[in-house]
Protein 1
Amino acid sequence: MWIAVLAASLGCYAEKLLGYLVPTSVLESRAFRQISGLMPVALLAALVAVQTFAAGMALTLDARVAALGVAIVALMLRAPFLVVVLLAGITAAGLRMLGWAT
Amino acid sequence: MAQRDTEVFDVLLRYGDSVPPVATSQTPGSDRRRIQGKAISIGIATGAYALSFGAISVSTGLTVWQTQTLSLFMFTGASQFAFVGIVGAGGGLVAAVLTAWLLGARNAMYAVSLAPRLDLRGWRRLVGAQSTIDESTAMALAHPEPESTSRYAFWATAAWIYLLWNLGTLVGALGAAAIGDPNDLGLDAATAAALLALLWPRLVDRSMWATALAAAAVAVVLTPVLQPGLPVLAAALVAVAAARISGRRETR
């Protein structure tokens, strides 16, 4: 785990430094800008989906789906980040405690 | 140059990690106190993110020190959340590292835009690189004139965020470590919500929605056939495809 933590950290730092050291045509190209602008959207959306529906390699519908629904409503009401996260956690924990969902 | 700056700024305003409250109109002259106040408020907002990051990270099995290392040295929110999210979902460490790198690629683009403005040398460049994140870049580009003010906005924002991001991480991590078994607390759902909250401000137009929905669909469809972590990496290809499609549209 330590190796992964350090590799991921150093890599992300290197990316930042790279922009200062080599302002190459690659980094300035339109394609790179477009891809790096869309990359967070694609990866975060995929992460949300997996984090909500996947249990290992299986797909499930459990308390997390309801929690995500609550999070979406909170975001539409412009709730702050921490409130969104807490509401989702409380929703899932509550449903599990009541035995209504796993 | 100016053209590119506006473009980057535009991207930041719309898709930044926390959509900092940057001014779109600039008053001439250096208004450092106003910038300082804005930097503090952005710092406090990201500190709140960091609380949840620290708690989620420890709940997925990282130690307090590993969690803190991510905030100290990786210091880019989306990558950190993605890393612990994949680890927590039982994904491979390689997939977690690669996803963090892919999410961090945008910081290189920010650095290219900031480089001529900041004019960093020696050790300042090493520190400046670490300070290159969504919020500090947005603040620097929001106060373009004069250059000294732009630099001040960059450094002030980065300093407050670095301080409060790491403080928040520590408090969140220690808090979660003290609670003990976090599985009953719905932290898996909290992780999903945290990632969604990072995604939300970026969904500003139809192409972003299309990219997000396609990527989510790809990840879900591939979940039963690939090892955990890999479906998310596969979804990165959606970003490449979407960029090609929108690039083709613009050249027409």
Protein 2
Amino acid sequence: MVLGKNKENIKAALSIATSTLLGIAIPTESNAQQSSVTDDWDIESAFLFYSEAERVSAIEGIISANKTFDNDEVLNLKFTIDALTGASANGAVAQPYAQTFTRPSGQGQYVISGEDTPLDDTFKDTRVQLNGQWTQAIAQDYILSSGAHFSKEYDYLSLGINSNLAVDFDRKNTTLSAGFSYFHDTFSPEGGIPVAFASMLIGDSNDPDWDEAFAKTRLTSSDTKTTTDLMLGLTQVINRRMLVQMNYSYSMVDGYLTDPFKIISVINEQGIAQDYIYEKRPTTRVKQSTFFQSMYHFEQNILDLSYRYMWDDWDITSHTIDSRLRIPVHLFSSNESYIQPHLRFYKQSAALFYQPYLLEQNESLNIDYASADYRIGQMVTLTLGVKYGMFLEKGNELSFRLEYYQQTPENAGFESIGVLNDLNIYPAVKAIIAQVSYSF
Amino acid sequence: MNKIIRLCFIFITSISVMGCASLGVEPWERDLLAKKEMALTSSPLDASLDDHIYFSKEASSGGKSFGGGGCGCN
């Protein structure tokens, strides 16, 4: 009883907090009135833990509240907070010897042991994100949904808007939709924006001349990028058991797309690093994708299967196959519960300017762009997971998800040189994803 | 090669949708389709968390929904 009352109180508090943010008046004088208001809100929450072996760890919490108004207008408010800590690959290749790098801030160095992949272990960030979405019918069979996005990290600010119009045809069996989103992001990295292809300054940061020398490798304190996405969609009911969706997306990204924390090793003919230079990427990127999804209801189970093909003008192409099979079970109680295995396969090709390292003799060549970030290199990733969900009283749902995620970077045809033959310059990244969700 | 894959994909999906003799259901036949778990995004928070992970770790994003900015993920 006490637990149930506390749960109602939490829901009431969240509902009131949400409404206060919106400026919606909530009558709180009587319990009866409060109850009727809180019953209108559907609240979902999730807590996620993500951990890579020897690299990044992150925790993320989300609270999402839905309210349906009298005329079927739906308001969704979502609050997300995440914290990230750990080590991230800085782009340099492993060497037989220890390597010293300067931290992005310019204050201090870190040393990577021989044969180890260079990781910068100073990453620490907290992000807060707010999303609001309003959905309503604007005419018979016409549904308009519009929203706004705000997120702030220590060194990153993102503002966005989106809108989508969906039109139903044929007894609502066919839905056509068209939407757009626009994001404006400002990046103010620790230590500022480095000069592209400038050598990383390595030495004694307590030296009186250090700050001046470091400043020469910096261009500015911040930069921006904009992202405009356009999307066309078709949803079709095939029969009583099957539903399909097809989307086409066109995305234009414009501005600072370089990663200011990433460097590239410049090696000699023996594969020994002679220098580390800051990477440089183009200032525009146009991505397109086609997406196909089908939902199929078997006698008991539900199969969710999707495929995405993406291509862009950086010469990256990718294939993504995602599948979930929801299987109803009765494990611990008479209440309905389910198990949902998850399998995701992803494969991407390398960007045109991806270089795991640069050869010293080629450095003088007038290259326009180069990045050693494995995330735009050739790669295969696999996700294997399972989710268990159970329904509680009043339709509340509690679920647990555990997944294993592995990234396997591949050599996109680059010749291995000298000592690099004996080193792992395409190390795999392995991560565990654990999540608990509760909706009430 | 990629163009061929794209064209095959569009062709197959078009045929699979348009080629069916009778598409759709009557309103009273929506018992299974109306289930929450039959929604195209049946777990929005899972999708949101997954999008954040894959946006940070891979070169592709979006497709199902908008894949725009939102984090300076390292």
Protein 3
Amino acid sequence: MKRFLETGNFAITEGAILAGCRFFSGYPITPATELAEAMSLRLPQVGGFYLQAEDECAAMHMCIGASLGGMKAMTATSGPGFILYADPYGWALGCETPLVVLNSGRVGPVSGITGAPGQGEFYLMRYPTQGGNFETICLAPSTAQECMAMTVEAFYLSERFRMPVSVLADQLITDGFEDISVPENDDEMKEMGLRVWPRKVCQGPEFYPYTDELDIPPVVLGHNTGGICSDWTPTVEGYDIEEVEAHHKHAYRLIYKVRNNRHLFNHLYEKKFMDDDPDLVVVSYGTPSRVVNTAVIKAREKGLKVGSLRLINLWPFPDEHFTRKTKYLSVELNWDGELVREVQRATPKDSEVHFLGTCGDLPTTPDLIEAFENLLKNEPLSRKGWVLEEW
Amino acid sequence: MEYRSSRITSKYLRSRKIPSTACSGCGLGMNHKIVVQAVDELGLEVADIVWGTSIGCAGRQTFATWKGDGFAGTHGRAYAIARGLRIALPPEKKIILTVGDGDAFGIGLMHLIHAARSNADMTVIVNDNLGYQSTGGQYGWTTPQGSHTDSSPYGMFEHNLMSEGMDVLEILKGAGATFLARHVAMDGARAVETVKRGILNRGFSLIHMPYPCPTNFGSRELGSRNQVNIYRWIEEQAAPLGQEKENTVWATGIWHDASNSRPEFHEMVHDTVEKIRRTGTL
């Protein structure tokens, strides 16, 4: 095991290499630039390829090409670049091409603030492209170390589900320096719970079977299997077809291969003080969770019955954590409230669901504790910061 | 009507997709045949080529016609996919792309320029039906000046990439393409020879091949779906390079041949990475 004081971007690079990634294409964008830089340095050292692209759309398409050629590939960006993935993301979902996509969230909309963390892409990670008729898998780490682990995991899942899997981080995690341990051999990887799935080649002739089965190898070109893939609805062999029944069966696979196999990733969450039916459950993901966890520990010391639920597997949304009727508070790095809507949907009818948002900066522990106290006393949440009259 | 396939059709193409569902009188099949004939004359096998296409008439009608491995990219993205694929595939595998004019010279032009810049080994056949015909017949970026289309009812009056003094091939030459040519679908054996040279170039080759669309372009511009009209109209405005006439829109033949003059993308990237891997530096 080697230890480093390094950034989340460094950890992601090392995770990708451990997972067998040998192709990265990206376009410079704050705060994902350092990841591209790290890849450009590290990949050639292990015989891998870094290609800078003319834009994010090309970057992800080049990754698709590399993946179609049999390589494990990854791309990374931030929100304004992620929207350019909409086109290739849909292609990769439809053709079931394994890929890993990292989004380091910053403050939006559009370019917003480049060097500050944001969580405005919660729903974008669920619906990264048009057309619907698919499920997506998204993992959200909260530390640099977890960035490495979730990158390895994303590659593992992308091969088994044969689809793009996204990792949603934010500017603080990818740019921040932390203590990172990198395993040096398979035993150490196993010890850290890191798992790797090798690339296999679909031999056909049924390249797109209409089932929810896992572990069907992806279509890889150049092996003369007769493998074909396109942006149109495929027949099982991959021919384009304009027919609703075939489309229904194809959509069934894209949706239910994920929904019916959630056991592969739905253990990815963290619970703190959740065993004694807390009166308030604080829900969060990514960096804000680190403040939430501290605040919950302190709140418990003060005798407040508060628990923390940190989501790592964001999509498909883990409804199973929200079966109990109690008070919920969603803490997010945005002002409009995104995660909170999903919590509202997943919780039992008439549950009390509250929202506490900041953006560009983390909430503070005292602010959170005050919010917990107010909610437990059935008092309204007071807003801190830039209180506008009609906010 | 019974369809009897020729030797090269049964050797290289899938019976499920040939004949295609293209409109009656469409000239795309002529271009397609020119390319497959060139492949055959070079003695290449099905396994030697990965065939990529795009969307629109040219992309969809040629998708999955190739017996071997193939893909179709979305609008304009086939070149970016092909560049990633070029890195991952062994260098001896050929990549041929059959795409349309809207795809290559409109929505995908930036990706195309970067494919040319990197001199990635691929042969791009731009099947130009003079506009966006699968969406009903709107003008494109190489539609001849003055043409009447569904989106230029008064005649196409904007500058485009085939306006006088301009040529899309000029852009690609500047971007570093190492083989560029133009033929119309009726050029037959001459075009086959050109495509063969394009495929043999270890680098980025592009052959621009205008072909007749009687259904939309012909009916709107020439007032009839009579196939002979649009075939004649294109032929009259095409002439071999050096023999251009006053009304020539498409000067045909090899436009720029710098075959094998510049390191190819796969080769350069792989050699460089190998050197860094071995020595830690360049």
